[in-house]
Amino acid sequence: MLLPVLLRKRRSDTHKGDYGHVFVLGASPGLTGAVCLCAESALKIGAGLVTVGVPKSLNMVFEIKLTEVMSLPLKDTEDNALSLEAFAKIREFTHKIDVMALGCGASHARSTQKLILKIIKDIDRPIVVDADGINALINNLRFLEERKTQHLVLTPHLGEFSRLIKKNIDHIKKKRKELAKEFALRYNSVLVLKGYHTLITDGKKLFENKTGNPGMATAGSGDILTGIISGLVAQGLKVFKAAQLGVYLHGLAADLAAVKKTQACLVASDIIEYLPRAIKKLLHG
C-alpha cells in the first residue's frame, strides 16, 4: 500500500539528527499522560529527537516519566497551564525542530487557548493539532485562514468536528466525506476525521482508512495518533502522506494488539507496544 522512504532500511552512516525533531507542546494538571503518550509514540515511529514543551511547574513530572525525551519548561499560568507569555521562547525553540504536535492535554485555560491560536497563526513549521488545540479553534477558524504557511494537520473526532463546523453529528455522518473535503479545502489543511473508517483529506485527495477496531475507544488513543503523524513528518514525509500512513499504522497496531489482549482490554499504550509489529507487517505482509 505505502512504502515511503521512512520504512526503508536505514543507512549505516546516519545519526539522530537525520530522523527529525518533534516538539510536543501541551500538558496541564491531570493531563500529563497525554503529552507522554504523544512523545513516546513519536519516538517509537522513528523520530530521532523529541522534546516536550510543558508548564514549568509540571516539568519534574516529565523528567521522571520520560527517559528518552527532552523537556523544555515554559512560562505557566497560576493554574499550572501554558501561558501566552511562553510564546517568545517557543518561537525561538522552533528553529531547532521539524514539526510541532500541539494541544495534547493543554487545557481550556484562556491564556493557553490564546497561545495555541497565536502558534497556529504565526509559527512557520508543520503542526499537527489535536485535543485542546482543536478546542481553541472552535469559534476561531479565522486563525486558520490567517496562517501564512501550509503543512497543518487537524485531527478532530466527530464531536470536535461538529463543534468546529456548527453541524450536528447525525448530519455529519450522512455527508462525512463531502464535509471533510470542504473543510480541508477551505482552510488549506489536512483533515483527519477520526472514527469508524477514519478519513484523511486535503480537500482534493481523500483516503478512507480500513484498519482499527472498537478497542481504540480508550483514553490516550488520539494522543498516540498525533505522535505517530508528527514522527512521520519529522522524518521527511509530506503532511498528507504522514497522516495517511500514520492512521493506517495506528489502526493496524491496535488490530494486532487486540488479537492478543482483546478489544475490551486494549489500552492506548498497547498501540505503542505493537507499532513495530504493524510496521513489519506492512513491509513484509
CATH class descriptor name: Alpha Beta
- The count of domains is 1
Biggest beta sheet attributes:
9 strands, mixed
- Unreliable sequence segments: none
Using only CA atoms, what is the Rg?
A: 18 Å
Fraction of residues in helix:
40-55%
- The SSE string, one letter per element, is EHEHEHEHEHHEHHHEEEHHH
Shape: globular
Which fold does the CATH topology refer to?
Answer: UDP-N-acetylmuramoyl-L-alanine:D-glutamate ligase
| Mean pLDDT reading | 95
Instruction: Please state roughly what percent of the residues sit in beta strands, choosing from under 5%, 5-15%, 15-25%, 25-35%, 35-45% or over 45%.
Output: 5-15%
The CATH architecture comes to 3-Layer(aba) Sandwich
Describe what this molecule looks like in 3D.
The protein is of the alpha/beta class and 285 residues long. It has helices at residues 32-44, 59-65, 87-93, 110-122, 132-137, 142-145, 158-165, 169-174, 176-186, 221-234, 239-261, 268-284, and strands at residues 21-25, 49-55, 70-74, 99-102, 127-129, 152-154, 190-193, 199-201, 206-208. The protein has a nine-stranded mixed sheet with strand order 3-2-1-4-5-6-7-8-9, sandwiched between helices. The longest helix has 23 residues, at 239-261. Helix 1 packs across helix 10 (221-234) and helix 10 (221-234) crosses helix 11. The model has no long low-confidence stretch (mean pLDDT 95). The chain is globular, with a radius of gyration of 18 Å. It has a single domain, classed as UDP-N-acetylmuramoyl-L-alanine:D-glutamate ligase (3-Layer(aba) Sandwich), CATH 3.40.1190. The protein contains twelve helices and nine strands.
